[in-house]
């Protein structure tokens, strides 16, 4: 049995009990502390949300530091599909655990992924019985898209953001994921960020915050 994930956490800025849960999934070779750096930007807009940024379940196998959700040593289609499925099992159990811990439902939970974290989130969310509030995916891809229709169980709202100068994950993955998700009825908003490499920029983060406030039913400021 794989040990449950752990990593940086931040309780609601309001000081009250959590009314929403936001889980952040880092990219390969990083760890939970990486995306936890987004929390100071997210928390003021989501003051009643708890933020969890778990470390990936495996040591990064191509460097002496960092974590991974699954190995990228073999980037063939079958290897990636197997890897993301294995990671999905771990993340599914973690989400169940954390929803129970905070007494929240899927409708009160969003997942933000970066790169490999996006791949993992897109594997998990549509295959859960009840839809998450949203998946926000930066600089990622949809792995094994051909299996989605047969395995689909829910249709969470999805926001995909990708730099058109991404040197790590092909920017074409944005349109490919949008097409595959839309084909099975998942509502998708896709945003290409001009001149952006494999990163998250201010406008992309602002768009993500707006979507999260909307899916959580928060009134617009001002």
UniProtKB/TrEMBL annotation:
InterPro entries in alphabetical order: AB_hydrolase_fold, LYPA1-2/EST-like, PLipase/COase/thioEstase
Lineage top rank: taxon: Bacteria
Domain Phospholipase/carboxylesterase/thioesterase: start-end pairs: 15-206
Entry keywords, A to Z: Hydrolase
Pfam family, one: Abhydrolase_2
GO MF term (any one): hydrolase activity
This protein's record includes keyword Amino-acid biosynthesis: no
Family note: Belongs to the AB hydrolase superfamily. AB hydrolase 2 family.
PANTHER family with a match to the protein in the record: LYSOPHOSPHOLIPASE-LIKE PROTEIN 1, LYSOPHOSPHOLIPASE-RELATED
The protein's name in its UniProt record: Phospholipase
